[in-house]
Design goal:
Length: about 350
């Protein structure tokens, strides 16, 4: 039987709707970004994000239906992100999905946004099956996850402070680049020397799979202050490349160790930072050396999108059935946590 899932994503600053066939095939994926609006504030303003989602949601969903050449009658399941994220933003997509579910009399499934990022790999790699390890690196999250089965996740490690993407954004702001900073640091780093400045690497305890990026961020800020006080001109490209090297080295080392520790042979990466060219390059080199299969989605499925939500919604629906319509938005929803 063919199952078509309409996915809706509004957890941060992208309003997105997508239709996915049998969990793997993208029939449409419409993404309306608010980045230009939040840029002037240097980050996402929650109240503005909610209002912009309200303005965009109807058009975005209708466009997703048009692009797939479908009517609402053709949809089997409606999935929406219910956390983690900005609660006001989440409520827009979640309420819209529940309204559709009631009016169309079709099942509704609430989806965890981070699990959605992981599931983007199922869309990009049709033969990918669990188990595998996934490194999720986004603006709000940094996790190493053991994906035991579809819809079954165990956290191996997590950041104890800043997320990787957050560190990229903060460092980018400090050296006067725009928002979001990740892609700009990625680009500028290509002109810099990654060994120019010896920024710290936080490996934490020997057997720990956790991450910490706030010390690195402070080290970059201290370096910039010191140079300013001494009147020495800063080489931004060197700062960007050296900072990036500290992040990438830790991500690569811990991810490979986690795959080996679980006795697995596949590593996926997901989330906005999974687009990073240096992370892909260095992870690819190390995985090749270790005989590990490395997979990641194309950039359009790394940053926030509803296709990944529809995909996760499909597998959650098959495994757990529909969610209750009383399901609320949960700003700090954990990976693997199932709420009613
Ligand atoms: O997954 P995502 O779209 O949103 C969250 O769920 O947080 O990730 C956005 C984050 C931002 O911090 C952005 O700077 C970062 O991903 N990012 C990158 C790159 N592209 C996006 N970081 C490093 N290199 C990139 N090429
Ligand atoms: Zn995200």
């Amino acid at each position: 039987m063919n199952i078509k899932v309409l996915g809706i994503e509004t957890s941060c600053d992208e309003t997105s709707a997508a239709i996915i066939l049998n969990g793997r095939e993208v029939l449409s994926n419409v993404i309306s970004t608010q980045i230009d609006i939040h840029k002037k504030f240097g980050g996402v303003v929650p109240e503005i994000a909610s209002r912009k989602h309200v303005e965009a949601i109807c058009n975005v969903v209708n466009q997703a239906m048009d692009d797939a050449n479908m009517s609402f009658d053709d949809i089997d399941v409606i999935a929406a992100t219910y956390g983690p994220g900005l609660v006001g933003a989440l409520l827009v997509g979640l309420s819209y999905a529940k309204g559709l579910s009631i009016s169309l009399n079709k099942p509704f499934v609430g989806v965890n946004h981070i699990e959605g990022h992981i599931n983007a790999n199922f869309i990009a790699h049709k033969d990918l099956m669990p188990p595998f390890v996934c490194l999720v690196v986004s603006g709000g999250h940094t996790h190493l996850v053991h994906v035991k089965d579809f819809g079954d996740y165990e956290i191996i490690g997590r950041t104890r402070d800043d997320a990787a993407g957050e560190a990229y954004d903060k460092v980018a702001r400090a050296i006067g680049l725009g928002y979001p900073g990740g892609p700009l640091i990625d680009k500028l780093s290509k002109e810099g020397d990654k060994n120019a400045i010896d920024f710290p690497r936080a490996y934490l305890e020997e057997d720990s799979f956790d991450f910490s990026f706030s010390g690195l961020k402070s080290a970059v800020l201290n370096y910039l202050n010191k140079m300013n006080m001494q009147g020495i001109e800063i080489n931004k490209a060197d700062v960007a490349a050296s900072f990036q090297q500290s992040v990438v080295e830790i991500l690569v080392e811990k991810s490979i160790k986690a795959v080996k520790n679980k006795g697995l042979d596949t590593l996926c990466i997901a989330g906005g930072v999974a687009s990073n060219s240096e992370l892909r390059h260095q992870m690819g080199k190390k995985c090749k050396k270790e005989g590990i299969r490395l997979l990641y989605p194309p950039s359009i499925l790394c940053t926030d999108n509803a296709a990944m939500i529809a995909c996760a919604g499909y597998y959650d629906y098959l495994k757990y059935g529909p969610s209750k319509l009383s399901l609320n938005a949960i700003a700090s929803l954990k990976i693997g946590e199932r709420c009613e």
